[in-house]
Sequence to fold (601 residues):
Amino acid sequence: MNIVIRTRTTGRMQDGIRTLLTLGEKQFAEAIGRLRDREGIDFWYVDDKCKWPDEPIQLGLEREIKGDVGDRTGIEFIGRGWFGGERFPRRQIIEALNGLGDINEDAAARRKRLQEVCGIDGLVRFLSLREEIDKTSIENAMKVLSSDEEMEAFTKAFTKCGDERVVKVLADIFKLSLGSDFYIPQLLQWKYRFNFIQKQINMDKYIMSDYTSPGSSVLDYHDRKPSEEQFDVNPMFRKEVLAGMPQDFSPEQKALYVYAKLSKLLKFNGRFLFRDNKSVNEDFSGAFNKERIERIQKGSEILCYDFSRLFEKFANEIEGVTGVVIEQDKLHWKCGFYTDDVSVGLEGINSTASGDGSFTPDTLKAKQGLALGGIKIISDRKGLVNAALEKIYPLIYGNRKLSVYDLMEKLKTIPQNESGGQIDRLALLKSYLQALKQNDIEGFDATTALIDAKRQGFFGDGLKAEYIGERTVIDGQNTMSCNLIIVDDKTKQVMILEPNRMQIKLVSPQAVAERLRNNELAYRDNLRTINMGDIKNDI
Amino acid sequence: MNDARIIYLTKTGKSTQRNQIIKELLFDRALFKKLSKDDAFIVLRDIGIDEGHILNVYESLT
Fold:
């Protein structure tokens, strides 16, 4: 709000405060109301720079209206449009008010009202207006901040049966710009106490915004309670997920172990890529399907939503995991978990670049023995997540026998194969597929791995590839298997990789064209002109 | 890729000795961060990475 000062005398702050204390009763009441809503105060002299010097001067509290005025589109006040002045935080204004010497009775009463509305009372009132915060929790939070003894007692008790609502209030208080919006004389002590509590309790759990990605529309938070969607994990699959997990693992280690195992045991459903084909009626909406999720077992093809639901199910059963979160962004789902010490976001089926900048989902990385990229550490002051992963990787991937240094020295003593000769590309592709199979990488994960290798030049130059769907029926639903059509520019050979059968075969361009015409095969872009041997969208 | 290389070399009657050692090396997920650039290039060539892509692949791994 703008307070307009008639004359310059002792300085902008002092002159502004004097104007504020001598406003008419109605104007002063309105100013108090606006301060309650956390509005800031700007003090202006009538001779300050302004956009509309022809407008009448409104001394004291400048009148505001909602909406556009004349040609002042988007402006919500009328007046001169002051600019260029010095802005004072409310805290500073209250400090200056406190420093006023002898003032008359009326001014002292107004000062008291200003102190209240901008001080701790104002903060408490502001917090109590928020629906989710109850009065007792606010009072308790204030008590915790009031002394070191209260702070220590609260922190100690919290680990046993702490009041989460108080922590939520504390988190809310320190999300506000306390230093400028409210006058808290003991702010430094408050901050010290809050930091102390933060070190003992994983407060990020109570600040949910950290889990939300830009564009996320729905946030479904399950706080140590079963989701609405009741289902049982296939008993055999449950056994496989938990197999080999040491019982003395910490909650963080157990949750990450489950995540890594789910990534290793499950496969991405490549049919998702052809969901827009008009012949497809397989359900990719993410809607809960009890029968489908209970059928999931080792090697099942899944998508982000069932991956997240499964993780939630397992994580909720781990003692010490204090919360599990599922985040939905239209079609994409992610999950995460909290313990007393960490907050972690997880994305097994990555839709965006993972931590290492690649787009390879963890369902593939886990099968290749690579570090998982979909783990997002939101809070981990003790470094528990990376330490847990160092313990988990050898359990899931196995250990090497010699040191890197010893193995490298040994490698250098062995002569290289003589170079020369043409690479048999089909044989190399088949070898690659065979190797993937040996490592349990099948289905769409195999396609992704092959594309990665192609991009890294493993098969040499002149090899082009593109997704091609093949009509099929699964569980009574029409859908399209995601195959790969590969064209060797050098030999003009055309091959089709069928990842579900883990085979690659030479095909005649004419036969493929015929099947495309019959709608047995389809590119993702339905309108493509069929011209075999001419890969348009090389991947 | 190394496993595929081993299968391919076996099929074409060539030695797989170097790639067997690399298989053991690759158990270390931070391998390429631990090796010197020259040594890392040796490993990538043996795996079968095309010469024109080696630098890019190396940089993506370190």
User: Anything to note?
Assistant: Residues 2-61 of chain B form one domain. Chain B touches chain A at residues 1, 3-9, 11-12, 14-15, 17-18, 21-22, 24-31, 34-35, 39, 42-43, 46-54, 56-57, 60 (CB under 8 Å). The mean pLDDT of chain B is 81. Chain B is about 70% helix and 0% strand.
